[in-house]
Amino acid sequence: MGLPIFFLELAIGQYSGLGPNKAFQRMAPIFHGLGYCTLVVITLVTIYYQVIVAWTIFYVFASFTSELGWGSCGHDFNTDDCYSEAANAECLSKSENESWPLTFIQRTCRPVGEICAENNQTMHNHTHCFNGTYNHLNTIVQRVLSSEEYYRDYALGINGATWESWGILRWEMVLCLLLSWIILYLCLMKGVQSSGKVTYFTAFFPYCVLLALLVRGVTLDGAYEGILFYVTPSWESLTNANVWGDAASQTFYALGIGCGSLVTLSSYNRFNNNCHRDAFIVSVANTLTAILAGFVVFAILGFLAKESGVSVKEVVSSGPGLAFITYPEAVLRMPLPQLWAILFFIMLFTLGTGSQFAGVEAINTAIIDQWPSLCKRKQWVAASTCAACFLLALPMCCSGGVYLFTVLDWNTASWAILIIGFAEVALVGWVYGCRCFLDNITEMSMHLSKFTRVYWSISWTVLAPAFLIGVLILTLNNFTPAYYGEYTFPEWVDGLGWLIGLASILPLPAFALYRLFRAKEVGWELLQPSKLWGPAQSTTLNIPTFGVYENSEKRYNAYENSDKPNSACDNFENCSWPGSVVVKTEPEPVHNRQSDARAYENLAFHHENGRKAFLCQNQTNS
């Protein structure tokens, strides 16, 4: 399911040379709003995802201490339920002269016998009260890991906050969020020209850390049990509808499907780039990376389970808890814990920042696509996007901000994104036509075999739509309201979550109705490619066109999403630069759907790094 949509988005962006807000509407005007749906999703995801990046920065700074803050229970924010393995080990070391072992409970060392008596357990029978494990005592008294209290009460600062009372802004987290956006802006201030270079580091550094963690993890006691738990299939889970829904959401999220970022990034490709090959390489690399990360995580979870005297299943957690509770707890029990904590959280920071490149670039490109005059002010566009997202994320820096984060995450990247994916394959498979789309792919010098063409056609018309509909039905049928830990949200917040999800898909019917009733376009016309639809490079003249045609003025504009040279002209008139190629000819129509040949005179061509060049011409009388 993921690969067909992944390749579809790459091909659309590369062929048209446009962002999602322009590309989809020109393929079929009835899908005018589809690009805006993807932009709503990527905007929401970008806002709340950067909060996670801010958390990683917070933990990076917290790791540069002689004693890791989440390793003890002696802080003001700790409660009497706090449990520290290091403190418990110290208590056990003092038990030599005691009739009963000492254990760490209520932030002090106490004899196990007293705890047994207080909880009506058989005092003189070790098998009934104390069997030497943390797990058994944990069933008698409430214990909370020090790493959990650190994350919950110090890093997030929840401290009793509710949805109705979010508390105050936590300035430590605000500063971390601000720093994360400043770093992101510096990486994106020049568009893909700057972010592309930084990506080499953000893409390869995590692999170095993962390999180091893997080597360290497999040498830890209990790693074998953790890895065995990881590779042992649980066949009964296949009957759980939620598993399929989660898997689909994870596929979309991991590959970046349905968010507009793939269309945006591929629009920067060379017109004849083999994105068919790229789709397979990226999909396989993504899968192998997930498998590698699984071995790293479960090797360390096996070690933590062994140290805690519990099963691996009992220490497995998902979401932020794995990164900010379970793993920090495991780091405490390794030699040189500060080193491994720093490496781990820097890795998370680079992964998060690298993931944000695509999202922010998609937003910036959409803005410039919509208002081409901003192309010479890209740095200001990037700064405005980052500043706006920073301000919108500030509520999630409050004590109860994690509740808003949970509601956004719960309802944005779930059922709504499945509908967007379905709309994309419906556009290509049922409206635009697989045959036409595969011909467009051939125009980009990708000559697919007959079998491959049949495979993609079946995938886009039958397999992917059917699978998406099935998963969507299962997801909605088994949908559960958002919750955070043991905290459940008020019922009206559940309604707010549904509105957030609906906002992600609302542009699709809204723009369709607008084109149908306000623009007075007939039904069949809405299903046909727009006259502005075309390739990013003319296959006749072998020059960039960026998918922009304007019949009414009988001229060719290639200013969409472009970087102007230093000597760029205004209003897209009388443009020429050193190295420009002036073409005076009448090209044949690029598409059969475009029956009228267009006369283009004084076409100035400046090609630099693929799509993002600037073209213009003088308007002439025909």
TrEMBL record:
GO annotation (BP), single: amino acid import across plasma membrane
Pfam families: SNF
Family: Belongs to the sodium:neurotransmitter symporter (SNF) (TC 2.A.22) family.
Protein name in UniProt: Transporter
SUPFAM superfamilies (alphabetical): SNF-like
Transmembrane regions listed in the UniProt entry: 34-62, 168-188, 200-219, 251-268, 280-305, 339-360, 380-406, 412-433, 454-476, 496-517
Membrane association type: Multi-pass membrane protein
Taxonomic lineage from the root: Eukaryota, Metazoa, Ecdysozoa, Arthropoda, Hexapoda
